[in-house]
Amino acid sequence: MIKKVGVVGAGTMGSGIAALVASAGIPVVLLDIPGQEDRNELAKRGLERALKAKPAAFMDPDLARYVEIGNTEDHLEKLKDCDWVVEAIIEKPEPKRALYERLESLLKPTAIVSSNTSGIPMQVLLEGRSEAFRRRFLGTHFFNPPRYLHLLELIPTPETDPEVLKEIRRFGERILGKGTVLAKDRPGFIANRLGVYGMVQAVRLMEKHGLTIDEVDALTGPLLGRPNSATFRTADLTGLDVLKLVTEELAQATGEDFTLPEWVLRLVAEGRLGEKAGAGFYKRVDGEIYTLDYRTLEYVPRAKVDLPELKALWDLPLAERLPKVLELPGKYGAFLSELFARTAHYTLEKAPEIAYDLVAVDQALEWGFGWEEGPFKNMDALGHGRLEALFAEHGLSKPELLGKAQGAFYRNGTYLGFDGGYHPLPKREGVISLKALKSEGKTLLEGKEAALLDLGDGVALLEFRTKMNAIGEGVIRMLQKSLEYVEEKGYLGLVIGNEDPRAFSAGANLALILSLAQEGDWDELSLAVRQFQKASMSLRYSPFPVVVAPFGLTLGGGAEFTLHADAVQAHAELYMGLVEAGVGLLPAGGGTKEMLLRFTGELAPYEEADPFEGVKRAFNLIALAKTSTSALEAKKLGFLRDRDRISMNRDFLIADAKRRVLELAPDYRPPLPPKIRVLGSEALGNLRYAVWAFREAGEITDHDMRIGLEIAYVLSGGEGAPREVSEWDLLDLEREAFLKLLGTRKTQERIAYTLKTGKPLRN
């Protein structure tokens, strides 16, 4: 079992790996070569880089205390008790081999050693090593930044002990949260070999078809089911120097043509390396993003791609969108058609050489490059007949692997093996796929906005299905039906979760709220808010356990549902917040009440504690619309409790939440409604003064002040003497304040602006 990790090499990758391991609560030794004045200077600098990184490398900066730094001359002995040592030094075989020689005589016999090389063959690195060392060695290729990119390529050699591979795979998946893929020991492994080839082709075809950088990024991002950073923005984030190095290494190792155009090499020579240098394919000028004109190497204002045919495709699922994308008129269709043909052909030709199966190829591109669907799934969506015609159109031969396929690479729960036979899709232990459950007929209830699924073992799951999983009337109605169904049918409990890539729930349906407000339908709005509050409270007081499995964006109403669960099983990447103040409102689905209940409840056992500190903490959290940057920070902020748990790997989240229901179910009893101590006028006076002081200092607007005063009123329990109130007393105050703010012109302006731009308005 891996209890301590060593990382040698404190560059961008090494320090990022160390930060990820420390974020998982595992002690790390981070070493680099000695500095001149300070012997530990390079390791120290690497740790500081990780602490300052944006996006953050640590899930909680306090966990940097798990990292012990040193240098490879004075402190190699610090690795003696490490169970796994990751080498992430310069990409040259000689220094790596020299390091392994020193490690071999130092490490304990059970220690695993791996290299984070992005392409040097393992056999080259192992020259001169003993049989015992070889058995405990493999490649572990993380992707940058290690915290955020899901892929970890494992490259075993023929001599790697299967138990070593099994342990690294377990640790990578469960402790570090990675999606692990086995790759063959070939240059570039899987993801870089195919991904970099695709990037090079996109650059070349841009020139051939007369497109601009803006046009290529508009065409090769979400339109194709790929990240917003698309092609050139991705290169800027990675670094043009890194792209140049990787393409040169791949060309040398494979004998294939990965040559970048001369103008790209000129950018590298001039130091225009992308984001880290302030300029690359893009550049920020006076707060605006400018794009490189590759013909002149000057930067020009960004040009939006506006094509009616594109607008018609956006709402289609990827499988339906992809064939239509390749038929776009003019140069756009010609570019995309040739790009798809060349990258698909290369994938078909190289897959048997670089991977053990085509499932691994799809996973590598999905997890390492953020594709919605991998290349083989894309080819199935296009259709093999159309694919053959596309190859013929561009003068490409029919690959042998395509000839083996019988119309599809995936069919009926099987995939095409490189041997020509179809094999059952590999089952990942501990992973529950909602998509698979639906295909197996496990849907219990279904509506347009939500559905209830059977997870097995007496546990059901409520899945939201709206855009960004916004909560509206349909979701709340299905929640009520689901709670009734679970009770009537004798299920043990309920999980609330989904498989959306970005958002557990971005909150209430703001567009509907704004529409009703503008129409002056206040009775309907008051009823809707009360129904939302009832929904939150029903999660708390149902006669069976309810476990919420939040991840990604968990905002507003999504956070309020989470706060009212019996238990939370959160993904480590949790961006949770009560953000209503940002649109001129306050949490009215029980969020304001719940934070007051939690924070004052924490102080209750301590007679000497000032109860106002709990009120103040809740006020700051809500008025400042604080949002966590990880599940660990969500615990610090108070959104998660000590008893709530964290899954490092999103793939296991639903199964972990189900397991939590099964733990709670045998002797479950719903909690008794609490009495809440409110401070009345005493707290209200203090909070009013604080809000007024902020306004006098010019730090908030008049409308910010109005919002703050309404939040203060609810958290104080209104005017009057300190007293005990019920949850519903506070919920009534929440609802009243929410409707007051919604009735103001400035709040309606804020909501409209946010709906249009996705950004907050300070008016």
From TrEMBL:
One of its GO terms (biological process) is fatty acid beta-oxidation. Residues 4-185 form the 3-hydroxyacyl-CoA dehydrogenase NAD binding domain. Residues 188-283 form the 3-hydroxyacyl-CoA dehydrogenase C-terminal domain. Coiled coil: none annotated. InterPro entries: 3-OHacyl-CoA_DH_NAD-bd, 3HC_DH_C, 6-PGluconate_DH-like_C_sf, ClpP/crotonase-like_dom_sf, Enoyl-CoA_hydra/iso, NAD(P)-bd_dom_sf. Keywords: Fatty acid metabolism, Lipid degradation, Lipid metabolism, NAD, Oxidoreductase. Pathway: Lipid metabolism; fatty acid beta-oxidation. It catalyses: a (3S)-3-hydroxyacyl-CoA + NAD(+) = a 3-oxoacyl-CoA + NADH + H(+). The keyword Chloroplast does not apply. The keyword Transcription does not apply. Gene3D superfamilies: 1.10.1040.50, 2-enoyl-CoA Hydratase, Chain A, domain 1, NAD(P)-binding Rossmann-like Domain. One of its GO terms (molecular function) is (3S)-3-hydroxyacyl-CoA dehydrogenase (NAD+) activity. It comes from the Bacteria. This is 3-hydroxyacyl-CoA dehydrogenase/enoyl-CoA hydratase family protein. It comes from Thermus tengchongensis. The lineage of its organism: Bacteria, Thermotogati, Deinococcota, Deinococci, Thermales.
